[in-house]
Design a protein that fits this description.
Number of helices: 6
CATH superfamily: Alpha/Beta hydrolase fold, catalytic domain
Largest sheet: 8 strands, mixed
CATH architecture: 3-Layer(aba) Sandwich
Radius of gyration: 17 Å
Number of strands: 8
Shape: globular
CATH topology: Rossmann fold
Distance between the termini: 42 Å
Strand order of the largest sheet: 1-2-4-3-5-6-7-8
Number of domains: 1
Order of helices and strands: EEEHEHHEHEEHEH
């Protein structure tokens, strides 16, 4: 019996008043936030198992938009239920079968088309958390239209193909994340060194658990705050370097 992987307490959260608005793109709903000035750069944010409406993820969208990017978080669950804190962990494997983070290509294409046609975006980055981190890892292997990616605590497991990234990708992990073993991170590092032909980076943040980087300021514990802020700055810096 594995431990529950999503131990960050989603119940103990402060509310959040979003700065963006919702749009409908073909068969997908999305949350979008634009900076106050024109830009031809965009970032797609991929939510975790709690879905596109979860306040933490919308906070991240607004945060990235504040750095000068049209930022969009599509509903990659296509209107189906996200995982809820009241759901039973015994059902998680079955839920994951119907929510595969490596089957996001069609939705990503729809959003990329929208960003290029509606917003005239030239460079598009992608950032994903947990489930979304796995989706980012997958998309950075498959979709050359994505200029750069940041995958936060998501690894595609057990596949030799997972190392030949198409564009610069940054992998962020928490040292105390019990869903991702240190061996997995070491293996990722060794194999990327061997196969990866583009720029990449792996960074492990001391003492941090799964889900640490998407907390809103008022939900952070003082001891974790410096690491959360550092991870966020690193994430934005990576995007700024390439997008």
């Amino acid at each position: 019996q594995m431990a529950d992987p999503f131990l960050y307490h989603t119940g103990d959260r402060s509310g959040y008043g979003c700065l963006g608005h919702e749009v409908q793109i073909e068969h997908i709903k999305a949350y979008i936030c634009r900076p106050s000035f024109f830009t031809d750069k965009a970032v797609i944010v991929i939510h975790d198992i709690f879905g596109w409406m979860f306040p933490d993820i919308r906070y991240i969208v607004d945060l990235i938009a504040g750095h000068g990017y049209i930022t969009i978080c599509p509903d990659f669950f296509k209107g189906t239920d996200p995982w809820k804190t009241t759901d039973h962990w015994a059902d998680f494997a079955d839920w994951m079968k119907h929510h595969d983070p490596t089957k996001v290509d069609k939705e990503a294409d729809v959003v990329l088309k929208y960003l290029k046609e509606q917003c005239d975006e030239k460079k598009i980055g992608i950032v994903g958390f947990s489930w979304g981190g796995m989706a980012v890892h997958h998309l950075m292997l498959k979709n050359p239209q994505l200029t750069a990616g940041v995958s936060l605590y998501g690894i595609i497991r057990d596949s030799e193909e997972r190392y030949n990234l198409l564009n610069p990708t940054f992998f962020i992990f928490g040292e105390k994340d019990h869903t991702i073993s240190y061996d997995q991170i070491t293996l990722l590092e060794e194999k990327l060194k061997q196969y990866c032909k583009v720029e990449y980076k792996i960074k492990v943040y001391p003492g941090q658990v799964h889900g640490f980087a998407q907390l809103k300021p008022e939900d952070m514990k003082p001891a974790d705050k410096p690491y959360i802020e550092e991870a966020r700055k690193d994430m934005i810096d990576w995007i700024k370097m390439f997008v």
